[in-house]
Write a structure and sequence with these properties.
By secondary structure, the chain is an all-beta fold. Helices cover 0% and strands 33% of the residues. The strands form four sheets. A four-stranded antiparallel β-sheet has the order 1-9-10-12, with no helix packed on it. Strand 9 and strand 10 form a beta hairpin.
């Protein structure tokens, strides 16, 4: 008994594939300041602020209680325009600061004024004189101390379809989507000194498309 020949037909169906990633980020605590008055507090994106110190206000987040000089916390200039970090919460207390931090307002006649925002100290010598120097023991308590940043995730996808010409020749059309959901996000780690994350920059790339056409015979 003869059976009719069954011709193989290549599928015309569209196909979708993809891959995604989730990754953690880490950043090191700063070791430039030697006065550690308060514990480190991680806020994440709880406190949106504006960083106006450059004269142009940029959206940011106070990720942790880094050091913002007191004269730049919610401050405005003589012209009434913001010139500091605006929106800092009232419960903010820096986790680190210089030995001689900047005061919120100038102190008339303060002999330490030339040394504001520095780690200057005066070491007594045997003869009773004082030697001015910058504190640095090379054994900072925060040396090699790391903190977790924001998580990062991304998703790519590919859409492709086989287009037959005959039994032996066919095309394959590909469209690849990188960062398919177009979620730029924000940078995942803060400035370790101020604790600010500049939200005016993207943490991920924007969506990109790539087309491809393959001929097989």
């Amino acid at each position: 008994m003869a059976f009719p020949h069954r011709r193989h037909r290549r599928s015309h169906r569209r196909q979708l594939a993809g891959n995604g990633t989730v990754s953690s980020t880490w950043w090191a605590l700063p070791t430039g300041n030697w006065n550690l008055p308060n514990a480190v507090e991680i806020y994440g994106t709880k406190y949106p602020v504006q960083d106006c110190r450059s004269g142009v206000c940029r959206d940011a987040y106070l990720y942790y209680n880094g050091y913002i000089p007191a004269n730049r916390i919610n401050s405005v200039g003589a012209n009434g325009r913001p010139n500091g970090v605006m929106g800092v919460p009232s419960n903010y207390k820096p986790s680190h600061q210089p030995i001689i931090p900047m005061p919120a307002t100038p102190i008339p006649g303060d002999p330490n004024a030339p040394f504001y925002d520095s780690n200057t100290v005066w070491v007594p010598m045997r003869d009773g004189s004082l030697q001015r120097t910058t504190l640095n023991t090379n054994q900072h308590p925060w040396r090699n101390q790391w903190q977790s940043g924001l998580f990062s995730w991304g998703q790519n996808a590919s859409l492709f379809k086989v287009i037959p010409i005959n039994e032996r020749v066919y095309f394959r059309l590909n469209i690849d989507y990188f960062s398919v959901f177009n979620m730029p996000g924000i940078p995942k780690t803060p400035d370790p000194n101020t604790g600010l994350i500049d939200a005016s920059f993207s943490g991920n790339g924007s969506r990109a498309l790539q087309f491809g056409l393959r001929l097989t015979w």
